[in-house]
């Protein structure tokens, strides 16, 4: 990292990263190129796009540019973005995109965590009839975009935060980020979402306004981070217990099904949450 960037604050990083060409994961390019000429539904395409937060972001920006010329509604789901641009737009997006270096361990881990967050959010939010699960999943996916952009273009910044955490000088990711960078990576995500003029709803959900949708997205991200750190993380019962408050009619079993943990640990988590009084 160049020396002058060592002293940058959040506004400078937002201004710097907003101008960068958003890359996509190499596997996404290969998968999408293989779809040329195929008869595949928009929902199937959306499932592919959701597996790459960079691609999701590029497609959203393409869809929003197209929408602005037709004065349609904001695009707030991956399916909506796919429907806006179609397979041809997705193929064009993949063709014109530069590629991430997926050999950067931190980038690969952050990208995997974002995708897992979206998957958990989609499952959990799908149990509420009054909200769009796809919007919640999109917010969970893009909540990591600030850190992902740093890994792609200035990996020393998030690596410093990881080193701070592992040293014991910080006991939480957010604290480690603030101590090393001067801001949290979630703040960077929000700054970029605003700088790129993404739909306001996405920013509100990522910010974590006190609504069921925002809280489900936040807790899905927390659970994803905990699972990535430890497949039997003792913090997982707290995540499941917390999300139950926003999904009161959903069984514990249904909430636990969203988590990619062993059957044995799922039973342990269930036992722990059942021991706590609700309300």
TrEMBL record:
Pfam families given in the database record: HDOD
Name the source's superkingdom: Bacteria
Which SUPFAM superfamilies does the UniProt record give? HD-domain/PDEase-like
Output the InterPro entries linked to this UniProt entry: HDOD (IPR013976), RNase_Y/CdgJ (IPR052340)
The HDOD domain extends over 22-212
PANTHER family in UniProt: PTHR33525, RIBONUCLEASE Y
**Mind telling me what this protein is named?**
HDOD domain-containing protein
Annotated organism of origin? Candidatus Proximibacter danicus
């Amino acid at each position: 990292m160049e020396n002058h960037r060592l002293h940058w604050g959040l506004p400078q990083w937002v201004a710097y990263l907003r101008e960068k060409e958003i890359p996509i994961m190499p596997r996404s390019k290969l998968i999408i190129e293989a779809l040329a000429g195929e008869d595949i539904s928009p929902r199937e395409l959306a499932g592919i796009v959701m597996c790459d937060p960079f691609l999701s972001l590029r497609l959203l920006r393409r869809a929003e540019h197209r929408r602005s010329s037709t004065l349609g509604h904001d695009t707030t789901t991956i399916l909506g973005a796919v429907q806006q641009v179609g397979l041809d737009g997705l193929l064009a997006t993949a063709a014109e995109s530069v590629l991430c270096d997926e050999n950067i361990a931190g980038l690969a881990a952050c990208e995997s965590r974002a995708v897992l967050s979206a998957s958990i959010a989609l499952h959990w939010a799908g149990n509420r009839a009054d909200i769009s699960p796809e919007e919640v999943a999109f917010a969970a996916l893009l909540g990591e975009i600030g850190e992902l952009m740093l890994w792609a273009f200035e990996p020393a910044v998030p690596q410093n935060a990881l080193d701070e955490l592992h040293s014991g000088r910080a006991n939480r990711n957010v604290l480690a980020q603030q101590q090393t960078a001067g801001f949290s990576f979630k703040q960077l995500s929000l700054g970029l979402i605003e700088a790129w003029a993404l739909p306001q709803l996405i920013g509100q959900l990522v910010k974590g306004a006190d609504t069921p949708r925002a809280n489900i997205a936040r807790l899905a991200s927390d659970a994803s981070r905990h699972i990535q750190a430890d497949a039997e993380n003792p913090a997982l019962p707290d995540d499941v217990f917390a999300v139950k408050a926003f999904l009161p009619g959903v069984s514990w079993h249904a909430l636990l099904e969203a988590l990619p943990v062993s059957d044995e640990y799922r039973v342990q988590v269930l036992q722990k949450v059942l021991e706590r009084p609700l309300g």
